[in-house]
Amino acid sequence: MSNDADNVRVALTGSILMAPKGSTAPVDLDSAWDAAWQDLGFMSDDGVAMEYSTDVEDINAWQSLSPVRRVLTSVDMTLGFTAIELKARTVTAYFPGSTITNVSGAIQRLDIPAAPGPQEFAFGLEWIDGDIKNRLVVARGEITARESLALGRSSAVGLGMTVSAYASSAPEIATWLSNDPAWAA
């Protein structure tokens, strides 16, 4: 086994994008994101937490003390982030089903529904480390968890959200593109 420090990556910068479900995502790393994809802007310096987990069910047999088989029962993928730009797209994402209307002049009003319904979107995550570029696309996702909104003197107001990925009509839950030479077989 060999260690290669050139294969250690960091996400120096990046973006979280959100689009209506069904929006076309780039199929390569050079194409620009379509106009339907809105960049959510600055994120907290914690970046983005991507979590992927699987659950299995053990099948036991009378004749064995250990499982004779394991069956995959679920797959879960989430993206967690804290948006620190309070703009229309981030605020309405945090408050599902909400609408912003102009009251008069520069005054806007956010109407937050008492019982919002489910809202699926497409999500994109892009991050860069020098010449290495990565794009992750979740064709179907929903913001399923929100952190409390902290208002204080010494820190940015943050909209902490967790996106849960759902399987699309294809068998994938997400697609990850990378030009990382370490990925080559």
Tell me what you see in this structure.
The protein has 185 residues and is mostly beta strands. Helices cover 4% and strands 48% of the residues. The chain is built from one helix and ten strands, in the order ββββαββββββ. The strands form two sheets. Strands 1, 2, 3, 4, 7, 8, 9 and 10 form an eight-stranded antiparallel β-sheet that branches. Strands 5-6 form a two-stranded antiparallel sheet.
Unreliable residue stretches: none
Percent in strands: over 45%
Largest sheet composition? 8 strands, antiparallel
Instruction: Tell me how many strands there are.
Output: 10
Summarize the structure.
With 185 residues, this protein is mostly beta strands. It has one helix spanning 88-94, and strands at residues 13-20, 38-39, 43-59, 69-83, 99-104, 107-111, 121-129, 132-146, 159-166, 175-178. The chain is built from one helix and ten strands, in the order ββββαββββββ.
Give short descriptive properties of this protein.
48% strand; 4% helix; globular; mainly beta; two-stranded antiparallel sheet
